[in-house]
Amino acid sequence: MTTQQNILVLNCGSSSLKFAVIQPLSQQVLIHGLAERLASNSAQIQYTLAGQADKHTLTPSQTDHQGAIECVISLLQTQDLLTSLAGVGHRVVHGGEAYSESLLLTNESINDLKTLHHLAPLHNPVNLLGIEAITQLLPKISQVAVFDTAFHQTLPEAAYLYGVPLELYKQHGVRRYGFHGTSYRYVGQKAAQLLGKNSDECHFLVAHLGNGCSACAIKNGKSVDTSMGMTPLEGLVMGTRSGDVDPGLIDFLCERLNQPLSEIMSLLNKQSGLLGLSGKTNDMREVQQLAEQGDTRANLAIEVFAFKIARYLGALAVSLPRIDALVFTGGIGENDRLTRSLILEHLAILGFELDGSLNKQNGDHKGRISTHESTLAMVVPTDEERMIAIDTHQLVSRDQ
Ligand code: ADP
């Protein structure tokens, strides 16, 4: 393919790199892959091209992000996909208050992005590595940053301010930003399409349940409240994150366990959630297998996980004039019928009633899992990569 119309999407995580080349108009994925265990000597790239899976071990000089991206670029070159690229879209976790939509990058805006590093020190610097690697390897190509936070910039003050001195917001940007915004935007548009409506006339509750979990209230196509906050730690119980805890717990644990703050933060981010509750795994499929074998801690983990989601969805509902649909997405939301059924049971007060057979098949042709007489609950698979490709294509085309 030689016409310049495809988009390379890059998602740089701390030890991984996800990539895909997408044809934005047809939304066809030409190649997608994952480089894992970066910075270790077992780093490798797995990819799927024209339905065929393949893998490639990275040489010792390729195990950092720059090396892995070089390897992806040469893979695209050998597959004759490089000349077809019209732009590169990057997932950038934090856009602060400066970015409420995706951004066509220039040298100046790349420098501006660096001023946001303090808001997401674990994520943004890594995302920037991807941008800088492409600047060096493909200096002529247009690049776009797509922010996880951007969709939530429509939150009203009442939803985004914490009950702390207002100076902390004004001087240090202390507020709720929310994440998973690219997923919510995609899923909100898809759900509206499935209902045969425009997204700006729809009111949705959406639960994005993957390794990271959050929920969002979307009113007239705009985010009006969400469960994640200043950082992705706030809100729901997740794979390894605790979600909401009493802030007093942090001081209590430092004292009681005689450990520094950094250890307690690591406990809340990396050893809690499904992993901490079950004591064995952060992976919902494994938690459920354990529960089926009679593991009571695993069963408890599932119950706590589902209850906290239902409680948050109930709280988010107060931001909507009505609920057109509750939408489940993410690996757990899309596949896990048990979690969905537990959540809907808790939410009977909002008029939900599960259709067991629709739930079993992960929704009918329009994603519906609730009975026709009850409030609509549906499953809509997310696709952040496609959304990034669509945004990148739009901004790059406008620039030409
Ligand atoms: P990420 O946030 O890393 O993108 P995913 O959206 O892929 O994660 O979600 C991963 C989670 O989805 C894991 O907990 C996994 O166990 C869960 N999951 C995937 N398939 C199923 C399934 N069939 N049943 C239950 N949980 C599932």
Description:
With 400 residues, this protein is α/β, with parallel strands linked by helices. The chain folds into two domains: 142 residues, 2-Layer Sandwich (Nucleotidyltransferase, domain 5); 188 residues, ATPase, nucleotide binding domain (Nucleotidyltransferase, domain 5, 2-Layer Sandwich). Helices cover 39% and strands 19% of the residues. It is built from 15 helices and 13 strands. An eight-stranded mixed beta sheet has the order 5-4-3-2-1-6-8-7, sandwiched between helices. α1 packs across α3, α6 crosses α15 and α7 crosses α8. The longest helix has 22 residues. The radius of gyration is 21 Å and the shape is globular. The protein starts with 5 loop residues before the first strand and ends with a helix. The model has no long low-confidence stretch (mean pLDDT 95). It binds adenosine-5'-diphosphate (ADP). The site of adenosine-5'-diphosphate (ADP) has 12 residues, from α10 and α12. The site of adenosine-5'-diphosphate has 12 residues, from α10 and α12.
